[in-house]
Amino acid sequence: MLDYPSLCAVSAVVTEGSxxxxxxxxxxxxxxxxxxxxxxxxxxxxxxxxxxxxxxxxDLGSAxxxxxxxxxxxxxxxxxVLGQQADNPAALTLRVAVNxxxxxxxxxxxxxxxxxxxxxxxxxxxxDEEHTADRLRSGDVLAAVTADTxxxxxxxxxxxxxxxxxxxxxxxxxxxxxxxxxxxxxxxxAPYLRFDRRDLLQARWAREALGAEPTGPVHWVPSTTxxxxxxxxxxxxxxxxxxxxxxxxxxxRLVELPPQRPLDVTLHWVVPRLHSPxxxxxxxxxxxxxxxxxx
Length: 295
Fold this sequence. Notes:
Strand 1 and strand 2 form a beta hairpin. The chain is α/β, with parallel strands linked by helices. It has helices spanning 4-16, 19-26, 30-44, 59-81, 100-103, 107-118, 132-138, 171-177, 184-189, 201-210, 224-232, 242-251, 277-293, and strands spanning 49-50, 56-57, 93-98, 121-126, 143-146, 155-169, 192-194, 218-220, 238-241, 255-256, 263-272. The protein contains 13 helices and 11 strands. Helix 1 (4-16) crosses helix 2. The N and C termini lie far apart (47 Å).
């Protein structure tokens, strides 16, 4: 039988990143948190937390924290069935992984609906759409919006639709870098924007639209909003969700790069196979909004 008070201490250290912050969250002293964590590690005969700044879980620590998250979720739902709903339903927090562009477009409407209906808090973990499912596999989150089509053990996958992207630049940038047209050669030398090292959408668009690889100077811009702002400021060409730039395109502040070929990124919703009304409410809200706003 697991020692759940000690496991709560492990989870708090992993979530907060340090024993001191975990102690504050649990209203305990750091030494008490340390004793619980060390005691559980000794009973299991394995290290659960790699001490550092921040503290990180081992594989076993991640698995146990994921188990605790599911237990908390099921206990919360059972409390509602028994008429013993907690005074503060937001004491339950669901961790969900989502990509930045979904968070900037359709996803807020879904989680706002869920939060209003249930009062449950959400901890949003942002990552590239190709890697959000890895957070679910590691136990870092309970559910994920992902473009990864590989199955996740113990989980079910629902198709959400596609987030449509368009390649854009400002008129001044086009005049300066694409005076001879947007070709494989001119695109190879033009500056462009990338969100981070995992962001491969610009390269994917260039290959599919022009058979080219963008090799020009890269500006690293880890912000969806700044991506648009800096494209408007002539810094480079870049890919954007159509819903975020359609007004700029209509007004002529941005121009879609020839051959005006959009890139659709198909998204999925992945959740554990748990009989949980809370997860069912969240999944229903996600699917309803995605059905209205995605392609």
